[in-house]
Amino acid sequence: MADYREMWKELGMDVETHDQLCEVLPMAFTDVYLSQKNRPENMGYFDFVVSEIHGVRPAELVKAQKENGTKVFGTFCVYVPDEVIFAAGGIATGLCGGSQFWVPGGEKVLPTNTCPLIKASVGARLDGTCPFFKIADMYVGETTCDGKKKAWEILGEEVPMHIMDLPQMKRRKDYKAWSEEIVEFKEKVEEFTGNKVTEENLAASIKMINDKRRALERLYSARKNKNIPISGKDSLLISQIAFYDDPTRFTEMTNKICDELDKRVEEGVSVFESGTKRILLAGTPLAIPNWKIHNIVETSGGAVVCEEMCTGTRYFERPVDETQTTLEGQIDALAERYMGINCACFTPNNARIDDIIRLCKEYDVDGVIDVNLKFCNLYDTEGFLVERELKKAGIPVLGIETDYTDSDVQQLRTRVGAFIEMLDR
Ligand code: SF4
Ligand code: SF4
């Protein structure tokens, strides 16, 4: 990585502790990623972004803040409509932490039995070891799970925090409530940025984010082929980068790799041996740099062909209706699209099970691994219904619970290996 120490110091980061992260991350990346064979050439861009993850994009954000007075909004959930932020001339960036490195910092203030995603996110801020957490002028939280709701109170002491009240059911009145919540969010963003959201700039940002969704849809479609032109690990990396990168550039680079994948499909190129079992991962999000389960599956005789996760299909499926011409209509269209995401924080949430079964067919899946981040009560509890319904549908399923440590890797490898072997019979 180039030298960004001056920037990190200016941001008030703990540069010495951060150096330790800078040492381990490239090693993990080399082991998991660069060891793969026959990777698409256009992964080069995404490898570069990850190798400079705390440098190149943060430097762009700082530049936009200093030179143009741009406001940066840090978000933690796929329900937050980035479109509103970009329409007001702001920049949205994902803040979910996916490394064990940040967990002990979170445990200083949170109960140990909090999910690692929340602990890592809080730790990254409190320890001063992630530039994105320092750069964001405002955090946008949501009322999804209990752990997050309480974490906002701690993070809100550090940074201005706006919390969106996400309904937990999907009745007509809940859609209406979410529309109203988006209107309130729009007003907050307008006040904070000093810029008005208009029909024109909102239409442009809806199109920009839809283009990103369409590019990801293309990437995922390539994985539906019998010959799989890209590994699950590489696809996951692209999905994770989608939360941080400049959306227009990201779309361009993702479409570029999709052109290469289309060519590979035409030529029958696969990165897996024929007969490799096709696995769908369902469950809790895998924030960067959490590559653990993909790595285990893909070094145990399986290929991850789809993720029914927030770092997966929940992020990009179903674009926002672009035909609305009034602010009111556009906001209702946003509400409609975002309320269509099926997170376990909703009850009932049968549509998520329907989604998983549909995706199994679309991606011609041999088996599902239902991944739960330790201490996520919502997905853990919903796992019972998910696994029961998948079995009823004749789809083999393995439920696993894990965290960000390496302590269970061997045990998981044994279980995942046995599951994949069983799919052969
Ligand atoms: S799992 Fe639910 S709460 Fe977590 S990011 Fe996804 S939608 Fe948000
Ligand atoms: S994984 Fe579960 S507990 Fe963790 S932030 Fe998401 S919904 Fe909350």
Automatic annotation (TrEMBL):
InterPro entries: FldB/FldC_alpha/beta, YjiM-like
Keyword annotations: Iron, Iron-sulfur, Metal-binding
A Pfam short name: HGD-D
Cofactor(s) demanded: [4Fe-4S] cluster
Any one GO MF annotation of this record: iron-sulfur cluster binding
Source domain of life: Bacteria
Family in the record: Belongs to the FldB/FldC dehydratase alpha/beta subunit family.
Protein name: 3-hydroxyacyl-ACP dehydratase
